[in-house]
Design brief:
Layout lengths: L1 E3 L6 H10 L7 H20 L4 E7 L4 E7 L4 E6 L3 H10 L4 E11 L5 E9 L7 E5 L2 E2 L3 H10 L7 E10 H10 L5 E9 L1 E2 L5 E2 L5 H6 L4
Parallel strand pairs: 1-10, 4-5, 4-7, 7-9, 8-9, 9-10
Antiparallel strand pairs: 2-3, 5-6, 11-12
Helix pairs in contact: 1-2, 2-3
């Protein structure tokens, strides 16, 4: 299942517009905060799909029947660009376990690149809900490889894939190459074009550089 939240008018679209705006992008703190806000909104939408149960909560005046989560998810992100988005998800699911993946593009002399996964840290995933985030779903290869690396620690009950922006090509790649169909895509917006260097157009640029500064 694919949810493109930007298709409906909401404050989410304001945050994405500011993240795309080349003038506003100069304020890296605002860029990070907008990404964090997008994570909070998507977390709220994901929460509606999770399992809940009724619990009696003792107040100072009596007892209230409240709905509470049966289980906190595991929140995973691809370093470094995904950290603000991860924080937004974690703001909502503030008791969640966390996982981190180091994945990068290794470029060759011909301009092509391979995705390398060097580091994975996280808890066992068997019988848990997994939320894995990366702000840009460009080719989709990083997401699929990261999912495969994470699930060596066990198969989750269901996986929620979260991105601020995606390309049509990236969405199709995920649909064709995920090892199983037990996942849901949550996207802010989907753009049509992907450049030869695998940047989304119109996109917003390099999310990691905009959030944390240029890299060597």
């Amino acid at each position: 299942m694919i949810h493109i939240l930007g298709k409906k008018s909401s404050i989410l679209n304001q945050y994405i517009a500011e993240m795309r705006d080349s003038e506003i992008q100069r304020d890296s703190m605002r860029f990070r905060r907008n990404m964090e806000r997008v994570g909070e909104i998507i977390a709220y939408e994901i929460s509606k799909t999770l399992n809940w149960s009724s619990k009696e909560v003792v107040t100072s005046l009596g007892v209230a029947n409240c709905e509470v989560l049966d289980q906190q998810p595991v929140i995973a992100t691809i370093l470094r660009a995904g950290l603000p988005l991860h924080q937004g998800l974690l703001n909502a699911f503030d008791r969640a376990e966390n996982a981190f993946i180091s994945a990068y593009r290794k470029h060759g002399k011909d301009g092509r690149f391979d995705i390398k996964v060097e580091y994975v840290s996280g808890p066992p995933l068997a019988d848990k809900f997994l939320i894995i985030s990366d702000p840009m779903l460009a080719t989709g290869a990083s997401m699929v490889l990261s999912y495969k690396a994470l699930t060596r620690k066990g198969a989750p009950v269901h996986t929620h894939i979260v991105s601020v922006l995606a390309s049509n090509e990236g969405v199709e790649y995920v649909k064709k190459n995920m090892p199983d169909d037990n996942y849901t895509l949550w996207l802010g917006a989907v753009d049509d074009e992907l450049t030869a260097r695998a940047y989304i157009v119109p996109g917003l640029g390099d999310a990691g550089d905009l959030a944390f500064g240029s890299k060597i």
